[in-house]
Amino acid sequence: MVKSCRNDALRITDFHSTWTQEHVELDESVDSMYYIKHGRTYLYSDAVIRAIADTRRAFRPILLLLVIPPFIRNPVYRFVAKHRKKIRITKTCPLPTQNFKQMYLP
């Protein structure tokens, strides 16, 4: 997502960052990416779809997936999230790029 991002306002962080601890009330029972936009928090497939759509205009049509009910989308999200390490194309993690460093909230 960082590679294709053209949105200068988009920022990322992790669950253990200072920013997250100060700004997000995490729910321990939720095993999901969080996406926060205009004060609203999105989880599971909603978070992924909205985050991808916000990376660049060309990806906005992905918002059409929101017409699929969450009870169908979210199991797909959970399956991919659970097996993401098996799905990876490369076996190594890349070094942080300049774009990643600019997007990251410590």
Short description:
The chain has helices at residues 18-23, 44-55, 70-87, 98-103, and strands at residues 34-37, 40-43. With 106 residues, the protein is mainly alpha-helical.
Explain what this protein looks like in three dimensions:
The protein has helices at residues 18-23, 44-55, 70-87, 98-103, and strands spanning 34-37, 40-43. Helix content is 40%, strand content 8%. The chain has a two-stranded antiparallel sheet. The chain is built from 4 helices and 2 strands, in the order H-E-E-H-H-H.
Keywords summarizing the entry:
single chain, 106 residues, mainly alpha, two-stranded antiparallel ribbon, 8% strand, globular
Helix content: 25-40%
Number of helices: 4
Over all CA atoms, what is the radius of gyration? Answer: 14 Å
Total strands: 2
Basic shape: globular
Q: Note the beta-strand portion.
A: 5-15%
Q: Order of strands side by side in the largest beta sheet?
A: 1-2
Cα end-to-end separation: 18 Å
Low-confidence stretches: none
Q: What is the H/E string?
A: HEEHHH
Mean pLDDT: 77
Instruction: Describe the sheet with the most strands.
Output: 2 strands, antiparallel
What order do the helices and strands come in, and which of them pair?
Blueprint: H1 18-23, E1 34-37, E2 40-43, H2 44-55, H3 70-87, H4 98-103
Antiparallel strand pairs: 1-2
